Amino acid sequence: MGMGGAGVVAANTDDALIFNPALLSYIPKLDIDMPVSFGIDQTIIREIGYIVSDLIGEIMGMADITAMSQTLKDWINTEHNIGLDPGFKLTMVSPLRFKDYCMGMGFGIYGNALANLGIGQGVWSPTLDVDVTADGIAMGGLAFEIYSPIELLNPVMVGLSAKYLMRAKVDRYESLFSMLMESIGNPNYFTEYFGGVLDIGSGLGLDLGFLYKWSDGDAGLGLTLRNLGGLKLNYESGQVAIPATVDLGWGCNYGRWILACDVMDILGGGDFPKKIHIGAELPGNILTLRGGFSSGWPTAGARVVIGLKIIRFILEYAYTANELGTYAGQWANYYHRASFTVKFF
Fold it and tell me: What distance in Å separates the CA atoms of residue 300 and residue 3, rounded to the nearest whole number?
């Protein structure tokens, strides 16, 4: 995310399962990860900063208590939206070596939620606007090389991954006061309530990836055919299709730098610049720096590794943007996202 979401060629860890399964053939060693991550929309942070700066300004200007209370009242009586993005994963990737033949494999369980909570309408009659989409994904992938018929060319890497996706959605607008009153006489109210409004669908999908590199660590091209034939989610209310897409990527090592550029859904319609994701990474033993552009919006990130004798602590941070408009640079939704991982080898 700190690299602008570019990884069709550049992903070199368990993220290969997500971006391009052909990258599994370049996994250097057995790697098991179980990080927990959390993201928050910068909107509420900006709002809190705004109200605090206003109050400080009034205090420094020796404003009376009436002006301060009016500022707080206006802020409380406005609906505030909080965007949350929690996630976790448990993955294992490993190379498979047979003399000079290169293969790789990986398995992963991923969980992620995009939640928007709107709270407002004052202190005495607050309302809650809940809009949540949560995904649980189980994936397995295998990558191998196809020998080139031309001796001077490197082999093409091919990867195939299968995934099972379960998606749950909640979209409700309720009065907090009425929910509280109804729950007083029914201890199972919230369990029954959210069980009734939860819409769950599931389906199977396949991804096919290709990767060609001119030389080890040099420039390469990647192609990912995502959701071959379409991924169909079966809900009680009906079926929803996630369409197939084709993602194209380029990447290279330039000195210590890792550079990458992806174009998502190259065959689909819509604004072309919105599909472009560009990123760069400067890796280090302790500190790794990242930066890029996602649909025209700048992103940044960092990774810190604290290594002890038998254990390593890894903290990662990204400031990333999602384009919500119809074209690049129209309407960005920025997230602060951090993850924490403990590794034993």
Answer: 7
Compute the distance between CA of residue 222 and CA of residue 220 in angstroms, rounded to an integer: 7
User: What are 219-257's pLDDT values in tens digits?
Assistant: 899 999 999 988 999 887 788 899 999 999 999 988 889
Whether 9 is covered by a domain: the verdict is: no
* Amino acid, single-letter form, for residue 319: Y
Domain count, the chain: 1
- Specify the pLDDT at position 92: 92
The reply to whether 11 falls in a domain is no
- The CATH number given to whatever domain includes residue 21 is 2.40.160
Q: Is 298 contained in some domain?
A: yes
Whether 289 and 272 have beta carbons less than 8 Å apart is answered as no
pLDDT digits (tens, 9 = 90+) for 302-331: 999 998 878 889 999 999 988 888 899 888
pTM over 0.70: yes
Q: Which domain holds residue 94?
A: 16-343
